[in-house]
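Section 5: illustrative case.
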């Protein structure tokens, strides 16, 4: 009876240990989501940089690819949720952070789209205009349409937020390092023109999402092969 009891206790301890290990490894991030967003944001930012600096025109708004990426992201998220064997409590927190991040980006986009037009209307109603005056007299004064200067710097700042939270919660150092680099890129972007901001945004997308996505994908495939 004593040996049976010891065996039962040992088996129970082993069962608990296995459950803990499964819970720790339950978060199997495939890396596809990070690769997707790193690619589309990086491409859109770089093409915008080329448009501003070199006059590249594609005939359509390149940022539409970011909007289009929402469809496969929904599919990826739904599929991953169904395949997840163990759900950790912090997954809900991370998901909430990314949801708030998405709403924030939407809010920024809405602000950038609406505010200049509203400002222009207010200016017209008040009877004054914005003019670009060349102090050296090289060119005549030009009428300026209201715009948000270097607003992409704020986007770069926000890119780092969910990445840092995810990296800290999941203890995934590539995302933590990527977020730190992105914060540095944000500081640099405060001293550069809009075109260069787009190039810095390209690097931010690579360090925040694309490179960590590659690492995640390799780990996921290696773990999947080991479990086969």
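Designed sequence:
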């Amino acid at each position: 009876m004593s040996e049976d009891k010891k065996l039962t206790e040992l088996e129970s301890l082993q069962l608990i240990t296995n459950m803990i290990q499964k819970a720790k490894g339950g978060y199997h991030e495939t890396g596809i989501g990070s690769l997707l967003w790193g690619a589309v944001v990086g491409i859109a930012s770089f093409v915008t940089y080329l448009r501003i600096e070199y006059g590249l025109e594609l005939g359509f708004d390149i940022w539409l690819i970011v909007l289009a990426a929402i469809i496969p992201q929904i599919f990826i998220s739904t599929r991953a949720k169904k395949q997840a064997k163990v759900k950790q409590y912090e997954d809900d927190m991370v998901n909430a952070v990314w949801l708030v991040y998405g709403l924030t980006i939407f809010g920024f986009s809405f602000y950038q789209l609406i505010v200049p037009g509203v400002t222009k209307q207010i200016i017209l109603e008040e009877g004054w205009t914005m003019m670009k005056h060349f102090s050296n007299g090289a060119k005549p004064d030009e009428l300026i349409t209201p715009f948000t200067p270097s607003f992409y710097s704020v986007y770069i700042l926000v890119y780092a937020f969910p990445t840092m939270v995810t990296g800290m919660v999941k203890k995934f150092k590539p995302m933590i390092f990527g977020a730190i680099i992105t914060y540095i890129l944000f500081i640099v972007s405060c001293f550069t023109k809009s075109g260069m901001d787009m190039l810095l945004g390209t690097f931010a997308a690579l360090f925040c999402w694309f490179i960590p996505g590659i690492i995640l994908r390799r780990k996921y495939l290696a773990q999947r092969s080991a479990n086969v």
